[in-house]
Amino acid sequence: MEGAPRMNNTSNADALQSRDDPQATQGRVVEPGAVDLAHGAILYLDDITVSFDGFRALNKLSLMIETGELRCIIGPNGAGKTTMMDVITGKTRADTGTAFFGQNIDLARLTEAEIAHAGIGRKFQKPTVFEHHTVFENLELAMKTDKRVRHSLMIELDSEQGDKIAATLALIQLGDSADRPAGLLSHGQKQWLEIGMLLMQEPQLLLLDEPVAGMTDDETERTAELCNTLAGLHSLVVVEHDMDFVTRIARKVTVLHEGSVLAEGSMDTVQNDQRVIEVYLGR
Ligand SMILES: Nc1ncnc2c1ncn2[C@@H]1O[C@H](COP(=O)(O)OP(=O)(O)OP(=O)(O)O)[C@@H](O)[C@H]1O
Ligand SMILES: [Mg+2]
Q1: Would you call 55 helix, strand, or coil by DSSP?
Q2: What's the gap in Å between 88 CA and the centre of ligand 1?
Q3: Which of 45, 75, 183, 281 has minimal Cβ neighbours within 10 Å of its Cβ?
Q4: In what order do the strands lie in the sheet with 260-265?
Q5: What local confidence, expressed as pLDDT, does residue 99 receive?
Q6: Residue 72 domain-assigned (yes or no)
Q7: Which runs of E-coded beta strand occur in the chain?
Q8: In which element (H, E) is residue 221 found?
Q9: In a domain, 244, yes or no
Q10: In the structure, which protein residues have their CB atom closer than 6 angstroms to any atom of ligand 1?
Q11: Alpha-carbon distance 196 to 281, whole Å?
Q12: Domain assignment of residue 235, given as a range
């Protein structure tokens, strides 16, 4: 496949084939936890094309993310990184190609809300916390609650929920700010709170688009620590231009260019790839 020399096409094809299983979930409403991860991959994009007025923002893009993986996506402005996230989350529909969450969930069949409910959380660049509520209340509001269960198991769930909020506060390093209105937090802290709010929903796949944009060096470093902690607990896709940050969290890195995969591999591999240097890193 042109433009994707390091893609493992064989395993991608195998994975795609197994979707012909008639037992696969094809319903519109997908319960959380219904995603089938038996084959190891949490996300498959295959041959995705998205055109805007004839311009191909994504051009036969194929990408596979393993369960538990932290994948960094880099590439020049306009490469299609955000459009890729828009396709995964249902904000934009692909003209051609397929996007599957696990083996069984065809993302093209679900609405944005259904995709979020199925377990894909997305953080946009601008934080959207509830400024007048405290940090604690923001996490509480974000928590997934099933009212029927809650009604019958009120006491146990309350302590369980409290533990979960405490654990998330510690993870996002806002334990000391739990009772402060979110509007008083720094830009970086708001970003962490929003990540915490996503975590309260227990997403299986977390998409972060430019999480350290506008952060101080110290905040950027702490965000790298947070991402490294989250890796393995969740599957993560992180888009960033900040190469110091990417270097701190990189495992496998994918370079997008003109809507396709230009290169994929370790940070070292992509940094030394002549085509990547030409279109992006060498600028
Ligand atoms: N809704 C839209 N209508 C028209 N063109 C669009 C739309 N969304 C994206 N594009 C175009 O598609 C291309 C890819 O944009 P996208 O935002 O995905 O790039 P990106 O890789 O996220 O870039 P950046 O690093 O600047 O965020 C760009 O040329 C952009 O102008
Ligand atoms: Mg973008």
Answers
A1: strand
A2: 15
A3: 183
A4: 120-123, 205-209, 235-239, 70-74, 252-257, 260-265
A5: 97
A6: yes
A7: 41-52, 55-66, 70-74, 96-101, 105-106, 120-123, 205-209, 235-239, 252-257, 260-265
A8: helix 217-230
A9: yes
A10: 52, 57, 75, 77-83
A11: 31
A12: 9-126+205-281
Nearest-angstrom CA–CA distance, 26 and 261: 28
CATH number, domain containing residue 240: 3.40.50.300
The answer as to whether 25 is a domain residue is yes
pLDDT tens sequence for the chain (283 residues): 333 333 333 333 333 444 444 334 444 556 666 788 877 899 999 999 999 999 999 999 999 999 999 999 999 999 999 999 999 999 999 999 999 999 889 999 999 999 999 999 999 877 789 999 999 999 998 886 555 454 544 445 578 888 999 999 999 999 999 999 999 999 999 999 999 999 999 999 999 999 999 999 999 999 999 999 999 789 999 999 999 999 999 999 999 999 999 999 999 999 999 999 999 988 6
In a domain, 1, yes or no: no
Q: Whose CA is nearest to atom 2 of ligand 1?
A: 52
Q: Which ligand is nearest to the CA of 52?
A: 1
How far are the Cα atoms of 75, 84, 133, 232, 267 from residue 244, in angstroms, in the given order?
A: 14, 23, 33, 21, 11
- How many folded domains does the chain comprise? 1
| Nearest ligand, measured from the Cα of 79 | 1
Task: Quote the CA–CA distance of 106 and 201 in Å, as a whole number.
Answer: 21
Nearest residue by C-alpha to atom 5 in ligand 1? 52
